[in-house]
Amino acid sequence: MRIIAVINQKGGVGKTTITANLGHALQIAGHRVMLIDMDPQAQLTTSLGIFRLPTKGIDTVLLDQMPLEAVEIHTRENIVLVPAGSKLMEIEHLNDGGVDRATLLDGALQQENPEQDFILLDCPPASGLLSANAIMAADEVLIPVSGDYLSLNGVAHLLTTLKKFEALRSTTLHRWVVMSRFHLRRRLSKEVKSKLINHFPNKVLMTEIKEAAALAECPAVGRTIFEFRRTSSSAQGFMQLAQDLIERRTY
Ligand SMILES: Nc1ncnc2c1ncn2[C@@H]1O[C@H](COP(=O)(O)OP(=O)(O)OP(=O)(O)O)[C@@H](O)[C@H]1O
Ligand SMILES: [Mg+2]
After folding, report:
1. Adjacent-strand bridge partners of 174
2. Which residues in the chain land under pLDDT 50?
3. Which residue's C-alpha comes closest to atom 16 of ligand 1?
4. Ligand 2 centroid distance, CA of 124 (Å)
5. Please, what are the domains in the chain?
């Protein structure tokens, strides 16, 4: 089982889009997938077509020790969604408990040991306790970086956060970088790409996810790109990205 946190404290870089569509691509490639919505905005939950937000989700698992099975939703064959839940923001504000506050998710996953090939964690655009829980529970982090200059600054900040929590773990996290919202013809996107490859040798996945109208339209109808535009280049891109992750294909 590979537990991967899709993480970047910068907003709007494509974390949720990547979690939903990469998750579906991994399922199409024959894997069992669990997607956990760690963001109080619950956009992963709605992206998968659950528009009436369940009140109980990962929040109840973490705060009240509810079993995962009691809140998980079988959205598609071999794709289990653990929705956000209405109290998820409370985790961000926990005052007591020291380091234990950051290991709630790790504890829940270790105890329940869900039978999955991949668990993807969709993190909020913040570097607080929810992201800390994802970092502590994951084996790997997938960092989406969009093709604008500011997103490069954001990565430096994220690396500091990662190091801080990594110090509390017994193992280091494997880092992957995925280029997202990429504009093929924009010079800036190409510059960001070459900087990333320089900074993260053997970490930048081969396939960049391009900016595409179809991807932006998917969440409103609660479908993944494979249900919305199955033959599009974006769908192909996500299948390739899944293979990159499976075969560890990087620059
Ligand atoms: N490759 C893409 N092409 C076109 N639109 C995209 C693409 N990736 C994301 N978007 C759109 O950009 C917006 C932000 O994307 P998304 O929600 O995936 O980012 P995020 O990092 O999860 O944001 P947040 O930090 O708020 O959780 C959404 O409206 C989404 O539909
Ligand atoms: Mg998001």
Report:
1. 140
2. none
3. 14
4. 6
5. 2-247 (3.40.50.300)
